[in-house]
Amino acid sequence: MKTYDYVIVGSGIAGLYAALLAREWGKVLIVTKGSLEDTNTKHAQGGIAAAIGLNDSPELHFKDTMATGAGLSDAEAVRFLVEEAPNRMSDLIRFGVPFDTVEGEIALTKEAAHSVPRILHAGGDATGEHIEVTLSQQVRQAKIEILEHTVVTNIVVKNREVQGLEVMPAKSGDKEFYGCPYLILATGGCGRLFKFTTNADVATGDGIALANQIGAEITDVEFFQFHPTALRVPGTPPFLISEAVRGEGGLLRNSMGKRFMPDYSPEADLAPRDVVSRSIIAEMKKTRSSKVYLDLTHLPNHMVITRFPQIYRYCLGVGLDITKSWIPVAPAAHYMMGGVKTNTWGETNIAGLFAAGETACTGVHGANRLASNSLLEVVVFTKRIIQRTRGHVKSYPKNSKDAIELPAREQAEKLPRLSIANIQSLLWDKVGILRSGPHLREAASILAGWENCLPSVADRKTFELFSMVSTGRLMAEAALLREESRGAHYRLDYPETSSAWEKHIIFRKEAK
């Protein structure tokens, strides 16, 4: 049996950043189900938020974040986020991330629901890719041990304390065990649960499912963010059209050419993502169209091409010159606000188990994420995880008094065939942007039935089936329980926000 001081599951920015910080304090192993570079981070276009501008301040960033969180953001966590942001940007610059500059100063742009420009970007709209490439090169040069193409079959826990994890490399197909006192889950999000998503293939909710299996607390999973503008071209996978496009003056138009967002919100095209997504759905229904359009043709050609080179090149590759033609777009699954519940040190209710990035729920995002706070959350709270372990404190928060188990549920009479495609269609149709009790109940029953017939984890496909069904059911059950509309969670049968629901839904699987 091999032992390490730190085992990190996942190789996005959270996993890579954790590994680079942890290597100074112990022996590190990264486990990832694909290649080191096969992550969701590289798809992050908008950038990373930090109050470093002359007209900005952590206090202003705090107010914007809390307002967007719709009453459920944790004030203490948000304070850490905004106050530590400038120093974490310095860390990324020291690691070599090439943020864009203007006349020697870092360029800052504005995105929806931010009161001032505070978004740093690299390569225009290729921020995530630049961060991912920079950090992955550093990890390889540091000779940190990496297990690629390897799935985690089980986290081993004894007396609510992490002992290590059981894995299965694709090459051998044989289970192996690695011991560690500190295990960091950094497996990313779960956008692949849905039929239409901006996420990479790896985003199947693995960390949430693994943590839930051993009794770690899972919270806020009903709050899933759908990005309003993903490219919608027949035969082409959804491709993220960054919110920064609207921040720079892009306008949404319906299939008749009418600019419609002023009809839905005083903030028009710069309204929060959930508002824009629902408005687009309403407009598509009204015009009987499967898409709306994003118009950049009134902006200077050179600005569009240099500010959004990745989007420009991708669209050109599918026959669309965005300086001359409107971009066909529709909403797509994008970001999980909830996840494995942590405190402000990234600790879970299992000793030695930490969660970082989109896998974690630090309490920062609440019911709705402020644009470009996600990459920031990663570097702030991942740094705090390593600081916590450096103190050799192996503690964990007490179990939440209000945590509940998933309810017993009768299996659906006619159970569809268990497949990734059927999971994605079910979640998109029944647990998507617009939700209702009957649809959520139906989805929860089907997912509960699928849980009972999951195959044993033997490879990446069966591992992802387990992850998607487990995480999907947690999401459906939480959405069914929350009988109100708040932030990214919208119930047609409960369209108002209720003060009685200004609280969190926390699931915890009790040990049998």
What does this structure look like?
The protein is an alpha/beta fold. It folds into three domains: 2-148 and 337-390, 3-Layer(bba) Sandwich (FAD/NAD(P)-binding domain); 228-332, Succinate dehydrogenase/fumarate reductase flavoprotein, catalytic domain (Flavocytochrome C3, Chain A, domain 1, Alpha-Beta Complex); 407-502, Methane Monooxygenase Hydroxylase, Chain G, domain 1. It has 13 helices and 22 strands. The longest helix has 22 residues, at 460-481. The chain is globular and about 60 Å long.
CATH topology of the largest domain: FAD/NAD(P)-binding domain
CATH class categorisation of the largest domain: Alpha Beta
Rg calculated over all Cα atoms? 22 Å
Quote the average pLDDT: 94
Largest beta sheet: strand ordering: 9-3-2-13-20
User: What low-confidence regions span 5 or more consecutive residues with pLDDT below 50?
Assistant: none
**Strand element count:** 22
Quick description:
With 512 residues, this protein is an alpha/beta fold. Helices cover 32% and strands 17% of the residues. A five-stranded parallel sheet has the order 9-3-2-13-20, covered by helices on one side. Strands 1-12-11-10 form a four-stranded mixed sheet. A four-stranded mixed sheet has the order 21-19-14-22, covered by helices on one side.
Please describe the topology of this protein.
Elements: E1 2-3, E2 6-9, H1 13-22, E3 28-31, E4 48-49, H2 58-68, H3 75-95, E5 101-102, E6 105-106, E7 108-109, E8 119-120, H4 127-141, E9 145-147, E10 150-158, E11 161-169, E12 176-179, E13 182-185, H5 206-213, E14 218-219, E15 224-231, H6 244-247, E16 251-253, H7 273-287, E17 292-295, H8 301-307, H9 309-317, E18 327-336, E19 339-341, E20 353-355, E21 360-361, H10 373-390, H11 420-430, H12 437-451, H13 460-481, E22 506-507
Parallel strand pairs: 1-12, 2-3, 2-13, 3-9, 13-20, 19-21
Antiparallel strand pairs: 4-8, 5-6, 7-8, 10-11, 11-12, 14-19, 14-22, 15-18, 16-17, 17-18
Helix pairs in contact: 1-4, 1-10, 2-3, 3-10, 5-13, 8-9, 11-12, 11-13, 12-13
